[in-house]
Write a structure and sequence with these properties.
The protein is mainly alpha-helical. The chain is built from 21 helices and two strands. A hairpin with a 2-residue loop joins strand 1 and strand 2. The longest helix has 31 residues. The protein starts with 19 loop residues before the first helix and ends in a 13-residue tail after the last strand.
Length: 476
């Protein structure tokens, strides 16, 4: 699966699905901190090295960073391990941050229920070390930084929504800031140990989370305003449809830069069709499910005064309002959904650490768990600072990230399907600049793609010359 879109070659612990042998290997491979010191001009104090070895010797602790998993360390996946691909993507995306994307159609762009629902379905149907093979060693650093921004952005959104829900459940006795801190600490505790605890959590948390979401449908469904109509003239509605489609597409594309970070213990001979099928099923089902639920909740704001009042407080309060009538059990359901955000935020933290290490040998020498901690601090600061501007972050951040990801996906597709169709890649050379492409062609293509994006961009701070001709105000 190394030929998938990827930012790094971080490991995936699929617990017993790939055998106990794999889990042992994760602990034995050693740290990039230790393996990279010889290549660095700066000495590492012995005391620091001993401290690092002590931490990495903890049972179940994942020491590997971006070092490549050798073919000899991989095991042929069982059927259960292949199904785990779909389970992981499903679990990671039936979360509140993705549900809130569905709010944007009716509440931000004034689209009707049917328009929003159809766009959700069609838009949802439509890594950085590996990026070096497509973009070149130096240009790949640019896409690494952009992918870091994505991970931080989505982590920030998850923490804000989680904090809002916990605050709403407490009746305001707990502040949004305290709720954010709780979410960040839980996610950090899982991510710092690596993928093993995450995959165990991911495998089983989808069951109660799915049940709770169906309870939400039963509780809130009667209040969905399915007859809600789009607002505006024909061209304005068309522009808003296009903008909402762009936001939905950006959300589903967000994993393109990190998609195979979690599956590097699968052998290179793993069926490409099976990988595609499991990934497609997991992503499409999860995104469509929660976004349609988000559209339904947002549509009810216009006809339900209680929901309108809750929405004026926060998006998290609107979710809690969907459980009205269930009493204390409804609050329990809301907390369950909130804790489900961890399944989306933990992989973001994990990938952020690998992205940092991809920036260079000095960055790689710093252990993964330190980068996880640094990323968690960044998430906390950004979430606290942006807790009152959730929709602004959604509208601008999601679309902006979608632009570069669409360009990157096409570059990878062309390189893989046209230029290297029969040549393959020398994966062992991922750190050898002499064997990697310079990246001039890819960089030029990337910049040309951005020119097109700027011409068609519709944001609060910029409307491109093409975009401003769509509708009365413009369309993305």
């Amino acid at each position: 699966t190394e030929t998938a879109l990827d930012t790094s070659t971080g490991p995936m612990d699929s617990e017993k699905a790939l055998g106990e042998k794999d889990l042992g290997q994760v602990e034995e491979v050693g740290s990039d901190f230790a393996s990279s010191n010889d290549a660095l001009p700066i000495p590492v104090p012995e005391k620091l090295s001993r401290w690092n070895r002590t931490i990495q010797s903890l049972k179940g602790f994942e020491a590997r960073g971006i070092s490549r998993v050798q073919p000899s360390e991989r095991e042929a996946p069982t059927l259960a391990a292949l199904v785990q691909m779909a389970i992981m993507w499903y679990s990671a995306n039936i979360t509140l941050n993705n549900l809130a994307v569905g709010f944007l159609g009716p509440l931000l762009l004034q689209l009707g229920f049917l328009d929003s629902a159809l766009i959700v379905v069609f838009a949802c149907f439509l890594g950085r070390v590996v990026a070096r093979y497509f973009m070149g060693y130096w240009p790949a650093k640019l896409t690494t930084v952009l992918n870091l921004i994505i991970m931080v952005g989505y982590g920030t959104i998850s923490c804000i929504i989680g904090g809002q829900v916990l605050s709403a459940v407490s009746g305001g006795t707990m502040s949004v800031v305290v709720g954010i801190v709780i979410i960040v600490l839980i996610c950090w505790a899982i991510a710092v140990f690596g993928m093993k605890p995450f995959h165990v959590y991911e495998r089983y948390q989808s069951i109660p989370l799915t049940l709770v979401l169906f309870i939400l449908i039963g509780s809130a469904g009667p209040h969905f305003n399915t007859s809600l109509q789009s607002v505006g003239n024909t061209v304005t509605i068309a522009a808003n449809r296009l903008s909402f489609f762009s936001l939905q597409l950006s959300a589903t594309l967000s994993w393109a830069g990190s998609s195979s970070d979690f599956f590097v213990y699968y052998p290179e001979c793993t069926s490409k069709r099976m990988v595609f099928a499991m990934t497609f099923i997991g992503l499409s089902v999860s995104f469509i499910f929660v976004n349609l639920l988000g559209v339904g909740l947002a549509s009810g704001v216009s006809t339900n005064p209680g929901w309108d009042t809750a929405y004026s407080t926060s998006s998290g309060a609107l979710l809690l309002a969907g459980f009205d009538g269930l009493g204390g059990f409804g609050k329990f359901c809301a907390v369950t959904v909130t804790l489900g955000l961890c399944s989306n935020t933990v992989p973001c933290l994990y990938c952020s650490a690998l992205n940092f290490q991809t920036l260079g040998k000095v960055w790689k020498a710093i252990p993964r768990y330190i980068w996880v901690t640094a990323a968690a601090i960044v998430y906390l600061v950004c979430a606290v600072a942006g807790r009152d501007h959730l929709f602004f972050i959604f509208q601008n951040f999601l679309a902006l990230m979608g632009y570069w990801l669409a360009i990157f996906v096409m570059i990878v597709f062309e390189e893989h399907m046209i230029f290297r169709q029969n040549k393959g890649f020398d994966w062992a050379a991922y750190e050898d600049k002499t064997k990697l492409p310079i990246g001039i062609a890819a960089l030029i293509s990337f910049l040309v793609g951005w020119v097109g994006s700027i011409l068609g961009m519709y944001q609060l701070w910029w409307t491109g010359p093409i975009a401003r001709h769509i509708g009365d105000l413009g369309g993305d």
